[in-house]
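Exercise: predict the structure of this protein bound to 1-O-phosphono-alpha-D-ribofuranose.
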Amino acid sequence: MATAHIAAEPGDFAPAVLMPGDPRRAQRIAEAVLTDARLVTDVRGMLGFTGTYEGKPLSVMGSGMGQPSFTIYATELFSQFGVERIIRVGTAGGISPEVKVGDVVIATGAHTDSAMNQLRVPGVNFSAVADFRLALAAYEAGVDAGLGERLHAGTILSRDHFYFTPEGQTQALAGYGTLCVEMEAAALYGVAAEFGRQALAVLTISDHLLDHSEDMSAAERETRFQDSLALAVAAALS
Ligand SMILES: O=P(O)(O)O[C@H]1O[C@H](CO)[C@@H](O)[C@H]1O
Ligand SMILES: O=c1cc[nH]c(=O)[nH]1
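Solution:
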C-alpha cells in the first residue's frame, strides 16, 4: 500500500536499498548498476528504482537532504515495504587532514548536533552506529578494490546546518579523529536501530573544510561516486 511519501506496493522494493541524497544520483546509480530497473515511486520527484545486480534484487532511492527527510523515507521503507538494510551513498566534506577529496569513508559511527536521536531514549545520549557486518563487507570490498590510503573507516559528523559551523568545531572534531561531515547518517542509524534493521553510510569526500583547493564542482558531486558505490553494492548484497 502506498504511504504518504512512497507510491509503491508491497514487494516493489528489494530487501536492500541504496540511498543517495540526490534523486538524480539515484537514477544514475540505477542506470549504472541495475539490470531491468523499473521506477517504483516518484512522489515529490524522489525517484526510486528496483532491478537486479548479478541476479540479486536491489533497489535505489533518493533520500533528500537532512535528517528529517532521510528519517521519513527510511521509516516508511523499513515499516511498510519489508526493507532489511539501507546503505546511504553520499558525499561529505573532509574534516581529518588524513582524508582527501575523492577518498571513500565508511561511517562506523556518527556524531550529531541534531535533536532527532536525543529524543529517542529519555535521559540517554544515543549512539548512532553502523551495522558491523555491513561495515566489514564494505571495508573488505575497498581493500580488494585496492583503494589503499584512499579508504577510511571511522566516526563522522551528521550536522543539521550545511553553511553554519560554530567556531572551533571543525578543529575540535578533527582532534577527536572525526573523518568528515555530512547530513544524514546519524538519522539512518537511529531509524535502523528503532526497527532492528541494518544500516551503513559509504561516503565520497567532495570537498575539505580545512582546504578548499581541490573541492568538486556540483556536476562532479553528482557523478564521482563509483568507488563508494562499488563498496555500497558489496555491502548491500553481502
Ligand atoms: O550528496 P548527498 O548524499 O546529498 O549528501 C550530502 O550533500 C548534501 C549537501 O550538499 C547533504 O545531503 C549531505 O549529506
Ligand atoms: O554536508 C556536507 C556534504 C558535503 N560537503 C560538506 O561540506 N558538507
